[in-house]
Specification:
Layout: H1 15-25, H2 33-46, E1 50-54, H3 57-67, E2 75-79, H4 84-91, E3 96-100, E4 122-125, H5 137-147, E5 150-154, E6 162-163, E7 166-167, E8 174-178, E9 191-195, H6 201-208, H7 214-218, H8 238-248, H9 251-274, E10 287-288, E11 295-297, H10 301-312, H11 329-334, E12 335-337, H12 344-348, E13 351-353, H13 362-377
Parallel strand pairs: 2-3, 2-4, 3-12, 4-5, 5-8
Antiparallel strand pairs: 1-9, 6-7, 6-10, 8-9, 11-13
Helix pairs in contact: 1-8, 2-8, 3-4, 3-6, 9-13
Length: 378
């Protein structure tokens, strides 16, 4: 029987054409034709003042931390239910991660618990748009303005999703995208930083280019470039950018393909939800998601473990997701959980992610549906 993988990296068929063209240009180290095309496309699509490709979403978040002046002793509020990169970017600069409980309906940070976690050391709030479903950004921005805090959106899963008509990643001060092979749009490994205020662009270029003003030199704005401040190497190869460019040209097709699978799952599993056997993803009013992920919530950890094994025996790879950061060794060392862990651990132990990827065949989708339904019939 054919194995159904959890994820298949997206390929539209034109990637090698653009990669070959990048090689022919003789500039493959980055900030060439395809990097610029991707930056411009993302700026136009998101309405951001500036967008810069990076080597990963991790590096985009590190760049955001530098731009916001995060330093030792600062505190940064975020959910514990997220990937390690969300915390790493700030911990590397000496800050403490302050974890706040999630909402059980979206698995996003509970906006009503943020304000109580703020101290005189708090410097930023980092909402994570889980599964491409937006956090309650109006409330988060209101809190940030009241307390003079930065908002850095972890929109790793959020490209092509929106909140009240605004692209995820474009609402806070800085947004971060991922183009890892597990995301809707990929360059193998890569990311992007989105800037709401264009005044950050020059500093972002400098930090991204090892602390030099090299970008200004190549634009002919200065006659030589030099080291002007501390930075790192966050600029991706033109080969990666060329791969991404092919996918951006087919962004709507990729989204439609994923959405067909997502909606079919929702339709098929609605009877199980109505019978009280499982829970399905919730998309609040005003949020447009991008079909990044389809998950169900089992009764408890034991049922989830059994369901995943049941599917694996039928050559279907379903997986769970994050282990809450506050329970990890590094999370205990570099962070603290504010308040009560009412939902983070309990809900994370119930969540099962089903196979979903661009170009997933209808017969494979139906096999997954049939297998999950069979498990619950028993």
């Amino acid at each position: 029987m054919k194995k159904i993988n959890f994820n298949v990296p997206p390929v539209v068929g034109e990637e090698l054409t653009y990669i070959a063209d990048a090689v022919r240009t003789g500039k493959i180290c980055g900030d060439g034709k395809y990097t610029k095309l991707c930056n411009e496309w993302l700026e136009k699509k998101t309405g951001s003042a500036a967008c810069l490709l990076t080597t990963s979403c991790t590096h985009a978040t590190e760049l955001a931390a530098i731009l916001c002046g995060i330093r030792e002793g600062d505190e940064v509020i975020m959910p514990s239910y997220t990937f390690v990169s969300t915390a790493d970017a700030f911990v590397l600069r000496g800050a403490k991660a302050v974890f706040v409980d999630v909402r059980p309906d979206t698995m996003n940070i509970d906006e009503n618990l943020i304000e109580a976690a703020i101290t005189e050391r708090t410097k930023a709030i980092v909402p994570v748009h889980y599964a491409g479903v937006a956090c309650e950004m109006d409330r988060i921005m209101e809190i940030a303005r009241k307390h003079h805090l930065y908002v850095i959106e972890d929109a790793a899963q959020g490209m092509m999703a929106s909140y009240k008509g605004k692209a995820l990643g474009s609402i806070g001060d800085i947004g971060c995208y991922s183009f890892h092979e597990t995301k809707n749009y990929s360059m193998g490994e890569g990311g992007a930083v989105l800037l709401r205020d264009g005044a950050y662009k020059e500093q972002a270029e400098i930090v991204r280019e090892k602390g030099t003003n090299r970008s200004k030199f190549f634009r002919g704005e200065i006659d030589k470039y030099t080291w002007v401040e501390a930075g790192s190497s966050y600029l991706p190869s033109e080969l990666n950018a060329a791969y991404l460019w092919a996918q951006l040209l087919h962004a709507d097709d990729i989204c439609r393909s994923r959405m067909r699978v997502w909606k079919r799952y929702e339709e098929a599993f609605l009877p199980l939800k109505e019978a009280g056997r499982i829970e399905l993803p919730h998309v609040p009013e005003g949020c447009v998601h991008n079909a990044h992920m389809f998950y169900i919530k089992a009764k408890d950890l034991a049922e989830r473990t059994e369901l995943i094994s049941f599917l694996k025996a039928r050559d279907i790879l379903a997986v769970f997701h994050y282990i809450p950061l506050h329970t990890a060794p590094a999370g205990i060392r570099y962070g603290r959980f504010h308040g009560t862990d009412r939902y983070t651990t309990k809900e994370s132990e119930r969540l099962v992610r089903l196979p979903l990827y661009y170009g997933m065949e209808e017969e494979d989708t139906e096999r997954v549906i049939q297998a999950v339904s069979e498990y619950y019939r028993k």
